[in-house]
Amino acid sequence: MKIDVLVAEIGSTTTVVNAFMIHQKPVAFLGRGVHQTTVDTDVREGLKGAIEDLKKNLHTDELTYDELLASSSAAGGLKITVHGLVYDMTARAAKEAALNAGGNIHLITANRLEKEHIEKIKRIKPNMIIIAGGTDYGEKEVAYQNLLDVIDLGIPIIYTGNIANHERIKALYKENISIVDNVYPRIDDFNIMPLREAIYQTFEKHIIHARGMNHVFDMVSHGIIPTPGAVMETTLLLDEMFDGVMTLDVGGATTDVHSICLPKPEYQKYLEGEPKMKRTVEGDLGVFINRELVLATWKDDDIKRIFGKDVNDVKKIIHEEPYIPETDEGLAVIDHLTERCVELALDRHVGDLRKVFTTNGYQVIPGGKDTTQVKAICLTGGALLHAKDPEKMIRKYLTSRQMKLVPKSDTPIYLDQHYIFASLGVLSRIYPEATKEIISKTMKKVGDPHVS
């Protein structure tokens, strides 16, 4: 059997390979194969195992392919530290770009780096350090001195600050420094894309040094990008299709929310500093590794009311159920935890309407990310895709948050029913139009808007 493109998702524990036909009509998603990731030895073994599993699932003895693309969250994901001049300006812009590229932010600082910051960076051992600071031709010394402070740590550095520093940084002749356009060139101007692409390139360049990854490019046809960044790539494509989109991904360890939209015109003057693209990663919200942390967000009385069981009985179920629940009781518990992850992650991602006192009396002022203009909500991640009624979870949230800047209650909801958003994001970087066709075919629109 001849396949056009395979896309591998190399995780810390599992490697998935998805098969696509894109060079002939109709374009299609064909199927998937899964194998344990072999990061402790050679990732190629896990890749080959996943391809063998794909052959079985496609009922074929022979399988050839033209291209193998990949994303990875193996080797601990993409750890990044971010250092800017003012937290709400350059540091925040760099943080948003790093999150959009699929990074896990372990430290953010503003103004000059202190000795304790350097020690923290050494303990974190990030995959890369991002230095921002100063609008173009404005303040330049803080970013430059911060760069000098970390230059000898042996960690890849991306400089994305005031362009007035470019020439003297080049004169340092340091191979571990990449220079890109200023992520915050003017006040309230987020220039995220150049830094985002540089993060991908740095990730690809240095991922081969991770254990078990040194020969992965022997099989892969193009560059490897971070898996969370791949989900944002799909979200970007969905935004082209819907002109305002939100993606929710509830996983075993984290819950990610991606949104791409402009604010309401009447809110624009209040939200000049908010980026159009936003990704938040909630590292304490997951339905497997972080089950107990999610459960602990309720009071005991609430647990009794919601689950119909005492907290100790719920904990017993949590401990006994595997990653994918096998009993009806387990499924019900995970559904409640999934809904809680959705609630808390959206509460943290979405902005608010705030009552403030002015000389003209009380006024309602918007703050944070305005998602009221989102025209489609897309659900991915195992927890949401296997939930009994994911639509009900989302509709309930949208109708219960009167002071949050949430999408309209009747916003269409779609399911990534084959769990391929990450693979589609990788595919879209090379074949965007074919990927759009596949998205249109594989996304499942859930029922009419209602909360039962």
Question: Describe it for me?
Answer:
With 452 residues, the chain is α/β, with parallel strands linked by helices. A hairpin with a 6-residue loop joins strand 2 and strand 3. Helix 2 packs across helix 6, helix 7 packs across helix 14 and helix 14 packs antiparallel against helix 15. It is globular, with a radius of gyration of 23 Å. The N and C termini lie far apart (46 Å).
Main pleated sheet: 6 strands, mixed
Number of helices, counting only DSSP H or I runs of 4 residues or more:
15
Q: Could you tell me the number of beta strands?
A: 18
Strand content: 15-25%
State mean pLDDT (0 to 100 scale).
Answer: 91
